Amino acid sequence: MPLWVFFFVILALSSSSHCSPSPPLTLRMRRYADAIFTNSYRKVLGQLSARKLLQDIMSRQQGERNQERGARARLGRQVDSVWAEQKQMELESILVALLQKHSRNSQG
């Protein structure tokens, strides 16, 4: 609630003890103060809702990015695994060939 409204209400309430204003004026001031408070409160609630929505959107986007990174990392590990298996098979075939060559040379 703006500060001037607070002072206006205090002034109106304190002046009512000295000279009593008509009841409709007091009622109007209360309604006016209530309306200002309600409008301010609605604005704050709207800002909080917008902030929460924005945070939800940003967290979803971050989650999608993390999933993409995870998928890339899994794919990279799979590629590394396949590459390592191929290298191991190549080394095994080289080792078998060397053993066969060595066994032929030792027999002959």
Automatic annotation (TrEMBL):
InterPro entries: Glucagon_GIP_secretin_VIP, VIP/GHRH-like. Residues 32-54 form the Glucagon / GIP / secretin / VIP family domain. Residues 1-19 form the signal peptide. One of its GO terms (biological process) is positive regulation of growth hormone secretion. PROSITE patterns: GLUCAGON. The keyword Signal applies. Pfam families: Hormone_2. Its main location: secreted. It is found in: Secreted. GO terms for cellular component: extracellular space; perikaryon; terminal bouton. The keyword Signal applies. GO terms for molecular function: growth hormone-releasing hormone activity; growth hormone-releasing hormone receptor binding; neuropeptide hormone activity; peptide hormone receptor binding. GRF is released by the hypothalamus and acts on the adenohypophyse to stimulate the secretion of growth hormone. Belongs to the glucagon family. This is Somatoliberin. It comes from Papio anubis. The gene is GHRH.
